[in-house]
Amino acid sequence: MGTKSMRVLVACEFSGTVRDAFRERGHAAWSCDTDSPSPSPYSKYHLQRDVRYVLENTSWDMIIAHPPCTYLTNAGVRWLKDNPERQQAMVEACEFFNLFRHVDCPRVCIENPIMHRHARIYIDDYTQVVQPWMFGHTESKAICLWLKGLPKLVETDNVHQEMMKLPKKERNRIHYMSPGKDRGKLRSIFYTGIAEAMAEQWGNL
Fold first, then answer.
1. Residues 63, 103: contact at Cβ < 8 Å?
2. Pick the CATH number of 7-202 from 3.30.470.20, 3.40.50.150, 3.40.50.880, 3.30.300.10
3. Which residues contact 195 (CB under 8 A, 6 or more apart)?
4. Rounded Cα–Cα distance for residues 100 and 120 (Å)
5. How many C-beta neighbours within 10 Å does residue 19 have?
6. How many angstroms separate the Cα of 147 from the Cα of each of 56, 100, 192?
7. Between β-strands 143-148 and 46-48, what pairing exists: parallel, antiparallel or unpaired?
8. Whole-number mean pLDDT of the chain?
């Protein structure tokens, strides 16, 4: 028997990396972001709008979400002190994150870097931490997954030994990425190896 096609929403994704991995396996996957989509054979399956509207008006078999981490990650925690505007932005980011925690969908994955302790007050503990080097990328970056109705991802191609032979700047490419107007977008592009594992392992449930 073939795999049953699922309706999959990939929220806060403009690159189409996860969407395309599910599309390649026959699923009705759509990405959604306020940014325009990156070029892809599946670019037409991109909803350029606020994902809250999509969540309110459509139903999905699976949701994979990449909510913005600007105000949640450890990297930006030093800017919170004595900055009421930044603190309010953090609370709003937590509320947006929790939309996906409480959405009416049987299978949900939310992805974000390791959070600072102030955000953790509003957001429950993650289910799993994965690394790009577990899925064929010679890079190090802790990626937390909050899972509902989904099993933990199983590593597919451990290249840790190869990665450790590389210079630190290559192993931590995202951290050392040069400043620029597109830096935030480039940093948010998801790893294809992890996307492929999601589609392969979760698309067969």
1. yes
2. 3.40.50.150
3. 17, 18, 20, 21
4. 15
5. 27
6. 21, 10, 19
7. unpaired
8. 91
Beta pairing class for 143-148 and 128-130: antiparallel
pLDDT at 1: 42
pLDDT band (50, 70, 90) for residue 181: low
- Please determine, for residue 51, whether its predicted confidence score (pLDDT) is greater than 60: yes
Structure tokens at 190: 């998801």
Q: Which residue has the tokens 């969540």?
A: 55
| Distance, CA of 132 to CA of 51 (rounded, Å) | 27
Average pLDDT of the segment spanning 196-205: 95
Which own/partner pairs from 77-83 qualify as long-range (CB within 8 Å, at least 24 positions apart)?
A: 77/116, 77/117, 77/118, 80/116, 80/118
Extract the runs of DSSP E, i.e. beta strands, from 13-69: 28-33, 46-48, 62-65
Confidence band for 183, pLDDT divided at 50, 70 and 90: very low
